[in-house]
TrEMBL record, chains A, B:
It comes from Dethiosulfatibacter aminovorans DSM 17477. Residues 6-288 form the Prephenate/arogenate dehydrogenase domain. This is Prephenate dehydrogenase. GO terms for molecular function: NAD+ binding; prephenate dehydrogenase (NAD+) activity; prephenate dehydrogenase (NADP+) activity. Pathway: Amino-acid biosynthesis. The keyword Nucleus does not apply. Keywords: Oxidoreductase.
Length: 288, 288
């Protein structure tokens, strides 16, 4: 598939949007790579750095020429943006997003997106724990899982466009699933992990001396405690039923281990650890 | 400090003992580097690979010539080993261990170690999630924290020997602390992290498909779920009071977030995440 007759526009040049820009410039080579951001300085910088062809503060100035639009702004802002600029989009364009929870964005846009615009809900499982264009990094997509939750309105050929783009920028898994499965599994494999990391770090025992007593395991487990509070508060609340279910299931495991410690039930502890050893061993490339 | 007139003996050539052997051979260059193991094949292999000078199945054959002995076997076996071979050690030798919890080993050996042997309780916060000599890797010590919990019997000059050895093999932090502080902080910064990793993995939602829905955060948080059940069951039980305290504090944070989700208390969630963001940001080198 050839992108060199396509104009791609990224809305929001933060860490994620910036990473898309760098990766798309290198691996996709579209006719033009545009960006929209409210921060003019970032647009100027990205232009000077050669990351984008041109930046626009006013979306109306460029949406009409954009074949593919990638929305890299907060999910709530995506909905606002789409509503406000619905008439500015080019007929036949593909719009995709990166929201980590899919239900709201899909529900809110249902019925209000023009028939000649194909909005494809996307979720690249890629990122780092930082914010802003300066932390953009094409490597975040390397080997990532890129999920799509297609709607009935999506055209097959457009899904293939986004899937091709995802693979070209580095995703090793590109996978279509339904919104329920997506939001359920994300509550487990992503949101719960962030809840845990924050809960570890917000301890009375955490201090500037913690590096004295910690090895790689602590660092790994708390890396994502460096969380974006605005983004994740919204995402947690949006998916609260699923997340509460995951917190309950996890807490019941923790409680099981605690009870076994109180009872000094070595067999139960051993069995529990053996189980996690066996499960995670299946997914581990020991010599990597 | 010069080690080239010293014989160093490693007891137990597993992942940790093997890593010591490789690092000591490269960075310490002792007169001889010996190893004791119950598995003759490992000793032969390590000898052929040039990692050790010579291996011994019978500790009595080599302890009498060993100036420094590093015990890399299970903590309970260290105690047994020391009792059984007390008369075999060389007069004036330094013995150190790597147990992750220090109270039992120090208490059990108190009063039974010969006056002319200096047992220095050590804990290199270094390792990987694998087992056995084949996973030995000198890099595990790179930049690690190496803790000592000296007793009143330890001679200052011998503490300096072990501290020098620790720095030479790669530790960036070499730190003396007391047993209580050590075991308390280890319950938080290491044992709790392993309890959490296992509790994440032992979920009904964990399956072979999990990589579809997970990014780096899940992988980081569950890396250590690939846990050695024998070693960690013992370590958890040995430190159970401290670990239970940590589980309680952590669970109460998780519960706080869960309650806030139920109440849709966005301010509380945001404040909680902001706090963990601020705390962990202090320890993060963003451009690393």
């Amino acid at each position: 598939m050839n992108f060199n007759d396509k104009n791609i526009t990224i809305v929001g040049l933060g860490m994620e949007g910036g990473s898309f820009a760098i990766a798309i410039k290198e691996f996709i080579k579209p006719r033009n790579l545009f960006a929209v951001d409210i921060d003019e300085n970032i647009l100027i910088a990205a232009e000077k750095l050669g990351v984008i062809s041109k930046g626009f503060k006013n979306p109306a100035d460029i949406l009409g020429k954009s074949d593919i639009v990638i929305m890299c702004i907060y999910p709530s802002l995506v909905i606002e943006f789409m509503k406000e600029h619905m008439e500015d989009f080019k007929s036949g364009c593909i719009v995709t997003d990166v929201a980590g929870v899919k239900r709201n964005i899909v529900n809110e846009l249902d019925g209000i997106v023009r028939d000649d615009i194909d909005f494809i809900p996307g979720h690249p499982m890629a990122g780092n724990e930082f914010r802003g264009f300066l932390y953009a990094d094409k490597k975040i997509f390397e080997g990532c899982s890129y999920l799509l939750t297609p709607t009935e309105q999506n055209k097959e050929e457009n899904l293939v466009v986004i899937e091709t783009l995802a693979r070209k920028i580095g995703a090793s898994i590109v996978f279509r699933t339904d919104i329920d499965t997506h939001d359920t599994m994300i509550a487990y494999a992503s949101q719960l992990i962030h809840v845990i990391a924050s809960s570890i770090v917000n301890s009375d025992y955490y201090s500037d001396d913690i590096t004295l007593f910690s090895g790689g395991s602590f660092k790994s487990a708390t890396r994502v405690a460096n969380i974006n509070p605005d983004l994740w508060t919204d995402a947690f609340l949006e998916n609260k039923d699923n997340l509460i279910k995951q917190i309950d299931a996890f807490s019941s495991n923790i409680q099981k281990l605690k009870d076994a410690l109180i009872e000094e039930d070595a067999d139960l502890i051993h069995g529990f650890l053996k189980e996690s050893f066996t499960r995670s061993n299946r997914h581990t490339n020991k010599f990597k």
